[in-house]
Amino acid sequence: MGSIRNSIRSMGFVAGWWLLLLLLLYCYPVSGIGVNWGTQATHPLPASTVVRMLKDNGFDKVKLFDADNKIFNALSNSGIQVMVGIPNEMLYTLANDVQAAEDWVTKNISTHVSSNSVDIRYVAVGNEPFLSTFNGTFLNTTLPALQNIQAALIRAGLSARVKVTVPLNADVYESQSNLPSEGDFRSDIRDLMVEITKFLSDNGAPFTVNIYPFISLYSDSNFPIDFAFFDNNNSAPINDGGRVYQNVFEANYDTLVWALQKNGFGNLPIIVGEVGWPTDGDKNANLIYAQRFNQGFMSHVNGGQGTPMRAGPLDAYLFSLIDEDAKSVQPGNFERHWGLFYIDGKPKYQLNLVPNKNGLVAAKGVHYLAQKWCVMSPSASLDDPQVPLSVSYACANADCTSLGYGASCSNLDARGNVSYAFNTYYQRNNQLDSACRFPNLSVITTSNPSVGDCQFRIMIQTTASVGGRLVVSITMHTALLVLVFLFPFTMR
Do 51 and 81 meet the contact criterion of CB atoms below 8 Å apart? Predict the structure, then answer.
C-alpha cells in the first residue's frame, strides 16, 4: 500500500482518491445482479442485439460459458462486466500444459481487455466439474487448470484486474441435518475443496456457487413447495439456533457460509453464479412459478438484507437470459426453458429487475420467418403406421420438450401432438418445403394452430436461415425404427 499512498500524494488529494477507488473496484467483487448468457440455440439472436437487451434491461454484469469473439466484439465499450467461462472439456489440456493456459489467456483475455475494451472481471475455470454425474472425471484437473490460468494472468499483468474462480454446484457442501450450521464440504472431496478454497482466498478471488431451489423440488416430490420461494408462506421454517430460514435459498447459501467458516475462510466473498426457475418442460416449470421465484429473488436482492449469516447485498447472476433449444435434456426437459426471454427475445412474464422500473424490455429489430406452420393433414389418419415413426423422427431432430407431462403443451390431443412435432421440426429447418413432407401426413398452413398456453412458434431469421440447409428426406424406414418417443404419445 506504500506505493499507492505515494501515488496519491504526488497526484493530489482528489485525483489520488479516484485512483484508489478504481483499484478497489478492480480488486474486489462488485455486488449486484447479472445474468447468464448461454448460446446453445439453433437460431441465436445476433450478439449485438443481445448486448442491447442487456443494457435495455439494466444488466451491468454478464456470465458467459465460453470465449466467443463475436460476443466479445459486441461487448466492446459496453460498460458491462464480464465473467468468461472455460468449458470442462478444456480442463485436462490447461492443467497439463502451461503454454496452453498462457495462449488461452492471450487470445481470450489480454487481447480483448487491451485492444477491444471488454471489461472482463473473472475467468470461470470449468462449470460444476464435481457433479456426481461426471464420475470424478475432472477431480484431478480442475485445481491445476485453475493454477495455470492464474499463473497466465499474472504473466500477462492482469491478475489484479481479472480474478479466477470455479462455478460449483451446491452439492459440493452438505449438512447431515436440515441445519445450515452443520454445513461442511462434501466428505469425498473435502480435502480438494479446502485446497481450491485456499487458492481462491490467497489470490483474492471469490467462491462461486450455483443454487437451484427448483432442482430441490424437482428431485423430491415431498419437498415443501412454499419453501422454494421468497414470499414467507412456508409453514415450517428452519430455526437454526435462533436464525430462522423461510426459504431454501438462504438455508443453502448459509450452509456454504458455515462450510467456509469451519475451514478457515469465513470472510471469502461468494458469488451466486446461477439462480433461477424454468418455465416449461416439467409440471413445476411454468410461468407462474418462475415469475414468483425470480421476482421474489430480485426483491430480496434489491432489499440488500443478505442472509442470516451474511448480511448485505448478494452478488448473483440470474439463469438465464434466453431459452436455449439445443441444450441437452439429460437432466430434464426443463433445461431448454430457463430464460427470462423466449428464443426470439420476447419477455415471458412481468419482472421488475430494478425498483421503479417497469418490466422486461424485449429484443429490438428481430425478424421472423413467414407466418406459416407445418401441421398434420386433416385427411391423414392417426392409425397410419407412419405417424409414430414420423413423430419420433421430428422430435429427435427438433425440440418437443413442451409436450412432456405437465408441460405447456401436455393437454393437446393426439393430432395436436403430431402437429406440434411436425412444426417444431419445420421451423428448426427454416421452413424449407422438404421439412414438411412427412409421408401423406403433413400440410403447410397459414392459420396459427396455437392453443392457449401452447404456442406453435415461428423461428426467427438468422444468417443460416436465409441460406437454408439440406433436410434429410423421411424415407429411411429402417433407420426410423430405432428412434424412440421423447414424450408420452397418447391416441385420444
Answer: no
